[in-house]
Design brief:
heterodimer, A: 88 residues, mainly alpha, 4 helices, B: 313 residues, 14 helices
Chain lengths: 88, 313
Amino acid sequence: MRHLQLFFTYVGLFVTYAVLLLPIGWLVISSFRSNDSIQTGKLFPGISELTLANYVEVFAINNVFIFLLNSVVIATSVMVLVVLFGSL
Amino acid sequence: MHQASDQIPNMTTGLMVRSRSADVRHAAFGYALLAPAICIILGLNLYPTISGIFTSFTDQSLLNPNAWRAVGWQNYQRLLTDPLFRISFLHSVLLTFSAVILQVILGLGMAHLLVRKVPGIHWFRSVAMVTWVLPIITAVVIFRFLTLPNIGLINLILTAFGFGSLTRNWFGDPTFAFLLILVMHLWRNVPFYGIAFMAAMQAIPSDLYEAATIDGASSWNRFWHITLPNLRYIILVMVVLHVTFTLNNFDFVYLSTGGGPVDATEVLATYIYKQAWSGYMLGYASAGGVIMLVTLVLLVILSRRLIGGFAEK
């Protein structure tokens, strides 16, 4: 009885988290695949297909650091101002 | 009796006047401290709301914002006869009801799993909020990527298991586009419900359950008569919050479908946005906003009544 309960708890947890995390996992895996590899429509890409080229491209071509800095500046100032005005 | 009561007021009024003036000074100081916050709240919340309500009775247009005239209830009459507005209104209410009800049910289920003290549960608890902290645009990009017609994960899995005939462009299909908006809401919000309900369930004294078990209560009875009544406040808070979030939700719909295909996912927020910034009709859009505000207030009151009434049991 106890073991059965444990079993069903884990089944429920794994099903729930599969639904929650699979989309994010698919995004992460796809971030390591080239456009051509994604276009083949394979569910499980071979190890040789994985590449860091996308990350290189993001940091080399776009001003990602500026975007990150913008986000950090906005987040920090919003947090400080909300705490300030919230505590008035 | 009368004499006594004549004398005492003299004394008491003397005392009262003094203490009242002190009170006034005290209160004035308090109001002075509150003044900046009140000014900010009035300026940032109340003024835009009132000016929005005011605009809803004018024919102000973005093309020439300074030339406006009062048109009375005309905007509201036009809104109520606009079939697209009715559809968006229906979609908004339908989405809010189905999303919030499903979120409460699924959240209770998830809380029941998370509250178990099984080995490794801390891992599950700590990653639970990951969909909640994800930016909405990221969530939308993920779902659009999953539902692409040729290379989306959903279609790939369907094909792999031999259901190739079911594959479609999910966001391009009027029925499924709306369901996907609902699924995105669930995917993002259910873990939040799960964590909140789990925290509230941990606060329920375990002797209640022990006593019920000794009395021979089934697990369903324990849930219905112990867990649910003890969760009523957190349920109320979550429902009121998410009725607001869902009815006001603009980003999920606008970023994923933009209200399409053929208005199948048009909700009030996107409809109003389009009237204001694509149709240039500020007065008309404001009238829509006022109707949205009234709807929201009514829905919040309704959910308070429903859950409050349930809590009285």
